[in-house]
Amino acid sequence: MFDNEEKISDEELAHWLAFDCLEGIGLGSRKILLLFERLQSMRTAWGASPEVLRYAPGFDHDLIGRFVQARKTLDPEVILSKLKASGMEAWPFPDPRYPIALKHIHDPPIVLYVHGKPRESDFVHDVAVVGTRRPTAYGQKLAKETARGLSDAGATIVSGLAIGTDSLAHWGALEGSGRTIAVLGCGPDVCYPSSNRRLFRQILDDDRGIMLSEYFPGTTPEPWRFPARNRIISGLCQSVVVIEGGVQSGSLITAKQAFEQNRDVYAFPGRVDSEMSTGTHKLIADSKAQLVTSYKDVLHYMGWVHAARNKNEVAVVELFGREKEIYDLLTLEPVHFDALCDRTGMSAGELSATLTMLELAGVATRMPGDWYVRYTPGSASSTGS
To answer: How far apart are CA 312 and CA 107, in angstroms?
Structure first.
């Protein structure tokens, strides 16, 4: 994973860790990142004089005083030694392994701590599956089916390892063929709740995913940490799927974070007399979330389609623009080239070029006489029978 990436030096990493370990002085991630942007080195920033610090954005006289006193209590090299002893990885904000999507949220963590064996693909097609800690039987079924279906389609399933929907989403991903990321409200080496220890170990031992946290290894769970971690769950992802949840549930907090981060949100409808559906119904009624009834709807709205690669492999291709428009008009029943011209208003040349791209992507098949069909796994047209 990332073998060819140029990683940050241990000395610089030690000072990122030191800044991350500062607590209770009012120095948030935005101010730290602005300080880094100004000085271009956390080692330099750590040792900066009050005269230099007063030119940093947000550093008033009182904050400078608190920072100067606080840094006397921390030794960056000791903190780095503790990290190495834990066996965890740390990715500070400028590290090339730090997920790009997360860099663009309002308050990104200045350091991410990783437990497990990450892969570059872990941060390419991430979809969050979230919901209540008390799912109904209906919600339990949906959570696993949705995660499993998206996992098989090539998505990395992101959730929070909480009891209920989160756990079911991770289990669903493990039943599928993809990977999963558990974003924790404690250190990445701390399994919380302890009842999820088997899930925690299976994700790591089977090399099916990673534990991710903004908290230093060994950090214990506290109630206030969990709403904060929700912004990471949504920030990593292009889409957030809400299975069930009341209007005050944590899954609605995640959905709110997703809206603010300009992510797509999908929600399942439920029984009108179920408290666990009030939150998802509100999301749908307020036109904030797209109503979906299966993982296939999620794939459709994201523009993902199944593509033929060879007899033993099915991949997923993401379509946009004209290609998506034409693909949506194709079915398992042959559609003639002229009919597609009429329905789209495209010129013969543009349509021919678009259909050729769909054929090359493996999502459409040209039949004799200028007839076209959609590729669907298991269909007669896809198997050649």
So the answer is: 43
CA distance 244 to 185: 21
Using CA atoms, how far apart are residues 158 and 169, in angstroms rounded to an integer?
8
CA pair distance 75, 89, nearest whole angstrom: 19
DSSP string, 153-174: TTPEEEE---TTHHHHHHHHHH
AA letter at 192: Y
Predicted TM-score (pTM) above 0.85: no
The string of DSSP codes covering 318-377 is E--HHHHHHHHH--SS-EEHHHHHHHH---HHHHHHHHHHHHHHTSEEEETTTEEEE--T
Among 124, 92, 96, 95, smallest CA distance to 109 is for 92
List alpha helices for 165-312, DSSP H. Answer: 165-175, 197-205, 225-235, 250-260, 278-285, 295-302
- Give the distance from CA 67 to its chain's centroid: 33
Q: What is the tens place of the pLDDT at every residue in 182-221? A: 999 999 999 999 999 999 999 999 999 999 999 999 999 9
Task: Please tell me the distance from the alpha carbon of residue 25 to that of residue 41, in angstroms, as a whole number.
Answer: 21
